[in-house]
Amino acid sequence: MEFKEKKKDTVLSPSGEEFVRNTLSMHPKSGAMDEIANFKYKIVKILTSDGDILRTLHNTDLEKLVPTLYDPEYMNDPKKDKTHNGDCYIDTCVFNFLRIPDVSNDVKTYICFDVNDIEIPQLSTNRMTRNIVFRCVSYQDESKTSYGIRRQDLLTMLIKRIFNWSNKFGLTVKEISNTGNSLESGYYYRELILQMTATNDIVDQINNTGETV
């Protein structure tokens, strides 16, 4: 039997690796795409720290790797229940890109999202609109829950509870679209689009400090 050599992972130069690590550590950014990467990183960390999100994803294998997930001390404390270490869910049940479902994959429920910036010219200044597009995806055999609603709908509700009308990113986040759809592969998903808008000078300040001024 012929064995193929395993493809090596991406390896950056020391300066390139330092740049990426600084960006993901929320240091001042040098460009819009760098800031989007950091913004997506923040969203991933919020999602994978939330107990209700992790439990609703219903991945029993990953649940074993988060011993605090069903700990009553955490479940009965709303603040503490948002502090789990769910890094094992990253790129398994939580993706920072819009992932197409694959019936051959063992994961039957997941969240994927992307972030898009749109610059809107105005007479006096430019305004930047940022859309966060979430898709909560569940296979038909896994979509039922004990709450009488589908798993993809429940995940969407929980994401809205976290982000909608919040100021987590220095500006108010608001829902602009919430639609459901199905795929021939037997997957169902609900797409939630959240939006935040600011002038470019405020966006720059948020990018560099994480807060409005």
Report the strand count.
Answer: 5
Order of helices and strands: HHHHHEEEHEEH
CATH architecture title: 2-Layer Sandwich
Radius of gyration: 19 Å
CATH-defined superfamily:
Phage minor tail protein U
> DSSP strand (E) fraction?
15-25%
Layout of SSEs?
Blueprint (H helix, E strand, L loop, with lengths): L13 H11 L7 H16 L3 H7 L2 H4 L8 H4 L18 E2 L13 E13 L4 E14 L11 H13 L10 E9 L4 E13 H10 L4
Parallel strand pairs: 1-2
Antiparallel strand pairs: 2-3, 3-5, 4-5
Helix pairs in contact: 3-6
Describe the structure.
By secondary structure, the protein is an alpha+beta fold. It has one domain: Alpha-Beta Plaits, CATH 3.30.70.1700. The chain is built from seven helices and five strands; from the N terminus they run H-H-H-H-H-E-E-E-H-E-E-H. It has a five-stranded mixed sheet with strand order 1-2-3-5-4. Strand 4 and strand 5 form a beta hairpin. The chain is globular. The protein starts with 13 loop residues before the first helix and ends with a helix. The model is unreliable at 1-6, 26-33 and 209-213 (pLDDT under 50).
